Amino acid sequence: MPDLITKIETTGYSNELGRIARKLSSPNVGLFRQLRGISVVYGDLRDLSPKVRLYVEENVDLCKPDNIHICDGTDEENNHLLKIMQKQGTIIPLPKYENCWLARTNPADTARVESKTFICTENKSDTIPSPKEGVKGQLGNWISPKDMQDAVKQRFTGCMKGRTMYVVPFSMGPLASPLSKIGVEITDSPYVVASMRIMTRMGKPISEKLQTTGGEFVKCLHSVGAPATGFVESSQWPCDPERTIILHKPAQNEIVSYGSGYGGNSLLGKKCFALRIGSTIARREGWLAEHMLILGITNPQGKKRYIVAAFPSACGKTNLAMMRPTLPGYKIECVGDDIAWMKFDKNGQLRAINPENGFFGVAPGTSRASNPIAMDTVFKNTLFTNVALTNDGGVYWEGLEDETPKDAKITDWRGKAWVRGHDSTPAAHPNSRFCTPAKQCPIIDPAWEDPEGVPISAILFGGRRPHGVPLVYEARNWKHGVFVGAAMRSEATAAAEHKNVLNSTNKRFQNIQNTKPSKRIRPTTISKRHYDDDDGDDTTEGSKFCDNCKHYFCFCRESVTNHPVRQTTISITNKWICIVTRKFPSCKEQTSTASNRETERDRDRERQRQRETETERERDRHTHTHTERERETYIL
C-alpha cells in the first residue's frame, strides 16, 4: 500500500483521485433531498461544497432542526421568506412605501450585548491585557476553549427543534475582489436571512465559487434560542435574553451567536465577521479591518480624493458619508458608511473596499434636515426595526416631527398607541434601525464595488465628546495621529447595553453625593458662554466642588436660557450657582472673592483630581455586572 500511494503521487493521478473523492462525498443528495434524515425543503445540497456540507451536517446533529433551507438569494426566495415572517407576526407591511416592512423585537432584545460577547483563545493574554488585581478590564472579554465548548453544548443542543435551519452563503466585499472573504451563516431566523440578503452579497453565486475553489470560509452559527424553561414570551420574536452569548474563535475563523435576533448580534457578517474576526484575519494577512466610513470628495477643479473616517456607533458616520456639501463646486459620493477593509497595493497605495452591501443605520435623528440623502435611500426595499408606525402605513421616529402630519395616529415600537406631546417615552426605540440596499443611495460612488478598492488619501478619527477636546484638530505627524486615534474615547450610545452609565469623559459630575439619582445630571449642554471661570479659557475647569454641601458650582456671567436641569429660564449674573439645584450656595463657597478665587480654584482642582481618581477606581470595581466567578457560572 505505501508503494501504491507513492506511485499515485509521482504519476500525477492525485487530481483525478481528488475529483472522484469529491463526487463520493455527497452521494444521492439530489435524489433523496435529505441530510441526516432531515428534509431539504428549499435548494439543493449539491450546491454546497464538501466543506460546507460537512459544516451543515455537524450543526444538524447539534441543533436538530425540522427542515433545511439552502438559500440562493433570489427574489422568489425573499418573497417567500417575507410571507413566512408576515404570517408569524414578525413583520408587517408598510403600504406607504415600495416593498418596505416593519419588525418589532422583544423589548429585551434591542441592542448589542458587550458583556456577553467573548473572544476564545488558548491564552487569555492573546485576547485582553492583564489588569491590576481586583480590577475588571474594559477591553473585551475572554473565554477558554473548554468553557466555549460547554456554553455551545448547553445552549445549542436541540435548539432548532420545530424550526427551519437556513444555510446562508455570503461574501463580505465584491465577489471578484482579492480583499473579499466568504462566510456561511447557519440560522433559524428568516429575519436574519432577509437582512443578510440586504447587508451582504448572498446566495448561489457564493456557493458556486466555493464549489469551484474549494476555499475556506468563516463559520457562523446563530440561533434565536429558547429559554431553558421552554416558555417563549413572544412567539413572533423568540429569543433567550437570559442566556444570550456571542462567541468568536479567531484561530478557527468561527463565530457562534445564541439567544438574540437583534441585528448586531445575529447578522454575523457585520460586527462579528467584518470587524472582530476580520481584524484577526487582517493581522495574519497584512491588511486592516476598521470601523470606518469611506467617501469620495471632488473639488471644484475636478480633483477627487477618497478618505476614511473612524467614529464609534451613533457619532455621525452615516451623516458624514452621505453629506450634501454647502460649498459651491464640491461633490461628495458614498462608498460605505460603517466598515472599511484596507490594504496597500503593489505600488504602496492604501486602498479600501466596503465589505458590506447595505446600510444598517440608526433611524432616530435621521430627517430631511439632518440627512436628506438617507431619506432618499430608505423608503424602498427596506426592513425597518423598532420604529413607530403611522396610521397611513408609514414610519415615524424622533426627528420626523416636521415631516409627519400633526393629526397622524402613531403606534410606538412596542405596538401601543402613542400621542405626540403627551407620552414621555419615545415613539421609536433609540436604537431602532433601517436595513436598506446601498445601491439605492443617490450619491453612491461609481467605484463602490471596484474589486481593487478606492485609493485612500486621508484618515479621520472622531467621537462624541461634549467636554475637554476641540471640535476639530490636526495631528502633528503620523505618529501623533496614531497616538491620538488610539486614545480617543466616546460617550456610550443606544447601541450599547450600558448606555445609561456615565461616560468617563464626564467623571467630574459623577461625585454629586447628596442628590437623589433622578436629579443627577450629565450637563452636556452647559457651554462656556454661560458657565465659565475667570480666566476666560475654553475649558470646563470653572466648575468646582463644595465640601460642605457636596454639590458642584459653576460661575455664571450671563442669563441662562433653557437651563439643562429644569428646562426653564433663570437670570443670574456674576455669581456661583449650583448646577443641580439652580440655587446660590449658602456655604463658604459663596463668599469667595475674585482676589482669592484663583488660589481656591487650584485647591479645588487638586481635590477634584483626587476624587476623580477614587471614583474611577470605585467604578472599575462596581460598574460591571459579572465578576470572574459569576461569568464562569453564566457561561455554564
TrEMBL record:
UniProt KW keywords: Decarboxylase, GTP-binding, Lyase, Manganese, Metal-binding, Nucleotide-binding
Keyword GTP-binding: yes
One GO MF term: phosphoenolpyruvate carboxykinase (GTP) activity
Reactions this protein catalyses: oxaloacetate + GTP = phosphoenolpyruvate + GDP + CO2
Annotated Gene Ontology cellular component terms: cytosol
EC numbers: 4.1.1.32
A Pfam family per the record: PEPCK_N
Bias (Basic and acidic residues): 597-636
Region (Disordered): 512-538, 589-636
NCBIfam families in UniProt: PRK04210.1
Subunit structure: Monomer.
Family: Belongs to the phosphoenolpyruvate carboxykinase [GTP] family.
Protein function: Catalyzes the conversion of oxaloacetate (OAA) to phosphoenolpyruvate (PEP), the rate-limiting step in the metabolic pathway that produces glucose from lactate and other precursors derived from the citric acid cycle.
Protein name: Phosphoenolpyruvate carboxykinase [GTP]
